[in-house]
Amino acid sequence: MTRREFRDLSTPREATEAIDALDVGGGVEEQSPVEARGLVLAERIDAEIDVPGFDRAAMDGYAVRAADTFGASEGEPVTLPVIASLKPGNAPDATVGEGEAVQVATGAVLPPGADAVVPVERTVEGEDSVEVRTAVAPGDSVMPRGADLAAGDRALAPGTRLGPRHVGLLAALGRETVPVRRPPRVAVVSTGEELLQPGAKLDPSAGQIYDVNGHSIAAAVEAAGGKAVRYVETSDDAAALRETLSAAAAETDLLLTSGSTSAGTGDVLVELLEEHGERLVHGVAVKPGRPLLVGRLFDTPYVGLPGYPVSALSVFRTFVAPALGEGIDQSATDAAGETEATLATRVRYDGGRLRLLAVGLVTDGDGDRVAYASTKGSGATTTLVETDGVVRMAPETSVLAAGSTVAVERFDDAPIPTLLGVGDPDPAFWRLLDGLDRTRYLRLADADAGRWLADGIPDVAVTGEPTPDGEELAGWRREWGLVVPQGNPAGLSDLGDLADGGRQFANLDVSISLRDAFDERLEAQDVDPDAIDGYHRALPGIESPARSVAAGRADAGLGLRATATDLDLGFLPVGSQRLTVTLNRDRTGKASVQGLRSRLDESLDGLLSEEAGYESVDQ
Amino acid sequence: MTRREFRDLSTPREATEAIDALDVGGGVEEQSPVEARGLVLAERIDAEIDVPGFDRAAMDGYAVRAADTFGASEGEPVTLPVIASLKPGNAPDATVGEGEAVQVATGAVLPPGADAVVPVERTVEGEDSVEVRTAVAPGDSVMPRGADLAAGDRALAPGTRLGPRHVGLLAALGRETVPVRRPPRVAVVSTGEELLQPGAKLDPSAGQIYDVNGHSIAAAVEAAGGKAVRYVETSDDAAALRETLSAAAAETDLLLTSGSTSAGTGDVLVELLEEHGERLVHGVAVKPGRPLLVGRLFDTPYVGLPGYPVSALSVFRTFVAPALGEGIDQSATDAAGETEATLATRVRYDGGRLRLLAVGLVTDGDGDRVAYASTKGSGATTTLVETDGVVRMAPETSVLAAGSTVAVERFDDAPIPTLLGVGDPDPAFWRLLDGLDRTRYLRLADADAGRWLADGIPDVAVTGEPTPDGEELAGWRREWGLVVPQGNPAGLSDLGDLADGGRQFANLDVSISLRDAFDERLEAQDVDPDAIDGYHRALPGIESPARSVAAGRADAGLGLRATATDLDLGFLPVGSQRLTVTLNRDRTGKASVQGLRSRLDESLDGLLSEEAGYESVDQ
Predict the structure, then answer these.
(1) What number does CATH give the domain A338-454?
(2) Pairwise CB contact (< 8 Å): B539 & A146
């Protein structure tokens, strides 16, 4: 096993400059205006025709010689013979002579001879004639040829991102195509023997996982204005990888890989770069993102991103997206934008490297934004959707104080959650949240949920032990016990049987409040936890022990009656636990909090009656 | 001609309620996560599998039984035989027995028997063995099965708009498809005999125009989250229109037309609605937008928008887009968003109706936004791209004061211009602007440009007469005269010849400063303007008279030598006019203004030397 150390880390600025110098340009292409929506004009567009292309009636009415209406009024109308009628799209087949009129609809050509239009409201229609009850001047109610846009005039600026309105103007000019900056084609290459694509059957025992980065980086490329092309290479063979990358290089403007560039077993990419390209940067003083690799491979710009999903996305957002946007439209990259937020709690950092701190955002009672640091590391896939962007902490910074204002670089333009809940993973509460759009719920242990509420972060907390801060909003009881296979084949009757040996038990993690209830009951019944086979094998999800039982990996598991019913398993009741929903008092004015209140009022009883083993409690 | 008056206008609220009641929903459809990007989850997504699906090595190193490392240190390493090596994607083929180790790479399955990983940094590799130089505890450097996301856990909230990160998480869960709210299919029906599609050859003499609304409304539908389907019916025949609309109704969730709903000749749509549907609203107290029509046609929701491009888009933005977004994602509609801005000048309005005032936006020296009312009406196509959104003026409002803060409802998320210039249409200045991205230039007469600069609206003004306010930034001279056909077939020699009769002259509009220079010269040479055939036929664009000459519609036209050269026409020089570029002193700090300065420094001399008849002047 050869190992590569990052002895000479580049600075973030050096990495940015190296990526800029790669010059990932897509060039210019012609597109129809409709297909060009969202793209950026490469050149100025001048009008090649007059708009309108003819003197145009601007009102429904009568085209006349203005001089013929001289002196006309309500009291003394002038009567003119109507010699023709014109609608939009009609070529005039008559000339308006002295004392004559032609009926016109808005948008019709002003017929030759006429120099004004009398609005229909100021006329009285007769048989083959019209009474004109007002005098008009030459040019009245006429839009002259070219008055909107004259041939030769500048119509659209270079660099304009084409929206609906620009498409409309280009249509008015009759443009079939326009030159736009071509979005760079970006190869998103997924590598690794362990990767499966969604839809394929996973074999976890062989360490297989679904490919996350291939999808999230491809989507991020598109969000940054590029065109993503995915490549998947699951062979570990250097020749196969070389083949895939060389094909991708021939077809795209930028190659992206993720993982396999850190010190470790997967140095194939680094070697390929040395053999078939040029290495500009390997290792950057940024956390996460140290293994960033920049260079050219097979004559194509190449960036190797870190492997952890959030690291890969953060580094892409910070270093690569701006370079993609530069070639097309800086504002596209900026669309995700920066948001100012107040940092909820102090963040410490043993500096020395730039840190990209992943944070979540929540709106406080005044409509301002509060940022909180992620509870999980960049290796967790869930951090992807539990955070909204990154805060840059400079290498020389070691502390960001609670309450300080930070600039959050958003990952994308996804709206931030309407409501932030934290606490226990309770199926009934999740069903309550189903009635509201775009809520976020972070699983936290009781003590952590209470602390977060005290720090003013979430809108609501759901806990086993009531939290001291906040307003108690609702509560209910849920029945818990031992989940067993249907028919209870091991013949368990109470908790004491777990300690008799010969039974595999599946426990819940201490972060879930039900575990506290279980431990209290063991102590009350004087059962020695260490005598329970599997007591220390705590599982992470509220359903995990029950699912272990269903899969035959355990004889009994700690869980809810509701879970046993959902998974069609047997259940031995042990106790009932009270859960409390506590509201952050500063958030009572939020629309989403009011929405939650009404949902509790209207739907809680119904929801509880539908979940097995749930019952309401008197407030 | 039957006429329909709007005797009972609905209120804007009634129109909104009627459109909401149409319930334009797209339903739910299954999409692959990648195709679902930008769409909104219809239901909650729970994890169906554990992520990771196995106990996973979190570091490169050695999988061991933690108990075997007890007491190990740098000074007293423990040596363990290495019985196997595992990479990500390898199924373990060995069990770690007491006193044994298996080499693992990050992401590999923790082999059976092992309960911890010793990081490679704390080991020394031997032949078939490893020296462990630290003690580890059970669980160290291992990510347990389901620790990221446990089967049964809530993974994504209903209502989540799927961004790159959500796509990544769905990939991790192995989801092939997810239920998303289907964007409503919206029929954008263009009607009118006068309409041509871009690419077709226009016959302006027959009043033909290119279809603007079909394109701009279709693009606005897509920007609001819908799926636009275009239909074009150029036949005036009621049966043909009925056929087209009934086909469109069968294929879509909402029918949109524009124009043909106002009082006038085109009442076919109103009659169709009465015969084959239901009319809910006809006429709304809003300006522009009075002829708004709402109902159901062939069992499909129907909205008839006004015909003028800006009116159609404003009414769509205000009344229809929110209803489209409601079915899918309110935040998509809000993406265009509201911007606060300071109104530059007082706006008067003879109220009684809600007014949607189209305004342009510019960033001032402090980065704040200034709004200015459009110079052109809603009938002008150019207003589409010279404004950025609308300000709602309530019916009871008659004046908005200069300096008041207004909420601008953006038409879309197109970035506002970087630099706002106003004044004379000068080809050389436009070429200067070509070097900057996303500039806006509004053509204004000298006096208006000076007034706008005094009101603090534009960044720069370009005028013939120097303006009293601001800093003179640059200036140049341009040669002007009579543009004639090649070879000067009419044998003109000076301005006096124009008044001799028999020659058709094409003049410039008084809004272009060159016209002032021309009029002064006529007066100096004692030439009677009224004796010039065509003097009063003033044309709107700087190139319009020259283009009239090129098209054979005039014998001579007022214009620049540069235009004559560009259009390959003859030229009789008459004079030279000085143009001045004046900077708004409050904007000197703007990046775009600094960009303009550098471009003037670097490129002005070169640009002037490339334009025929231009020369620099000493500042």
Answers:
(1) 2.40.340.10
(2) yes
